[in-house]
């Protein structure tokens, strides 16, 4: 059984993290899949998905540290093509990755108590985002 | 066909890496899946799974380098909530990721000769760990 | 439905990125899967796969920045075993990861306009590479 649906939402700024666990669980429930997996995929090259303890401190820490690893305003050859100042956004998003697969058991996401699924805006301005969710199993 | 099982084991210290390839292969064999994939997922937000050449040198290199990227003892806003000194553990685990998907062919994991599946403890103390393994295919 | 096939190709140098989106789409089309997912897996521990806007600037930026994070020529305990000078290659490949899962809808990869699937050589010399592609769905 394969069930596919889309999450659409806006982001407000660079580094914004959103907890999408509840929305993913809703889609899993709607799919009727009891045992299997769900893949969460950010469509586009300047945002990422991942898993984290979704508390306010880490929502500050992760974007700040990614900005330390790939700083905004540093030299990126990407600027030669686009001059849009988001070379670091691409690198952050590629390193974090656009795709996360999470197991489903008894119709529920299998996650730790302090483990949530997040979407992270890496681009330098608000964006409209599409996340494709594919549930498969039986 | 979907087959799901759990690995449970203890970790002894921060940065400990364990080769879980054999245990994953055992579950794949038990599943009866000949062609498909297996997803390996660490339940919890301060450990990771991945693929590496599992030799003693890299078992020193990877945790040491992750401690260089996200140093223990640096400032993390995560500490405001928990004061438990593991802000870096969360960031390391989120960057490495909790989820790995590996193909299965003729009933065997498809891996390079020097490519193994590892679990890595990123937390600052020994933990009891659960890894959910989902095999799917035909 | 599970369809599996292999991409084989040569790489020419460390840091070389190749756009394999077209080849992956061909395999998806050949599989007949209309809705589901495709997993792309690099067999071997010193290369990676991922998603990026595949333009010339970022093809310079990503390898250069990974060389900054894990520099060639730095101390790696991996050298004790092999003396082959590619400790950084292993760490770069493990951090980027060998596995990417992308959704398929209406028989097409679901990707952003500026989002492509790449293979990256992290080793220090040309290599023959195998990427296993598994398409599943209905």
What are the defining features of this structure?
alpha+beta; 8 strands; five-stranded antiparallel beta sheet; Jelly Rolls; three-stranded antiparallel beta sheet; homotrimer; 4 helices; about 140 residues
What does this structure look like?
The structure is a homotrimer of 138-residue chains. The first copy, chain A, starts with a strand and ends with a strand. In chain A, the strands form two sheets. A five-stranded antiparallel beta sheet of chain A has the order 1-8-3-5-6, with helices on one face. In chain A, strands 2-7-4 form a three-stranded antiparallel beta sheet, sandwiched between helices. Chain A has helices at 21-31, 56-69, 78-82, 87-96, and strands at residues 2-10, 17-19, 36-43, 47-52, 99-105, 108-109, 116-121, 128-137. Chain A contains four helices and eight strands. Chain A has one domain (2-137): Sandwich (Jelly Rolls), CATH 2.60.120. The first copy, chain A, is of the alpha+beta class and 138 residues long. The mean pLDDT of chain A is 97. Chain B binds chain C through residues 35-37, 50-53, 55-58, 60-62, 65, 69, 95-97, 100-103, 105, 110-112, 114-115, 136-138, and chain C through 2, 4, 39, 41, 43-45, 69-70, 76-82, 87, 90-91, 94-95, 97-99, 101, 132, 134, 136.
């Amino acid at each position: 059984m394969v069930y596919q649906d889309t999450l659409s939402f806006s982001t407000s700024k660079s580094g914004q993290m959103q907890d999408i666990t509840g929305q993913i669980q809703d889609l899993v429930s709607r799919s009727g899949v009891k045992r299997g997996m769900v893949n969460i995929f950010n469509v586009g090259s300047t945002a990422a998905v991942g898993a984290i303890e979704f508390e306010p401190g880490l929502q500050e820490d992760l974007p700040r540290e990614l900005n330390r690893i790939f700083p905004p305003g540093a030299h990126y050859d990407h600027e030669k093509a686009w001059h849009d100042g988001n070379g670091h956004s691409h690198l952050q998003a590629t390193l974090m990755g656009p795709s996360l697969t999470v197991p489903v058991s008894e119709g529920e996401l299998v996650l730790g108590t302090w483990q949530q699924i997040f979407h992270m805006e890496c681009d330098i301005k608000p964006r409209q985002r599409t996340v494709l969710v594919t549930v498969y199993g039986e």
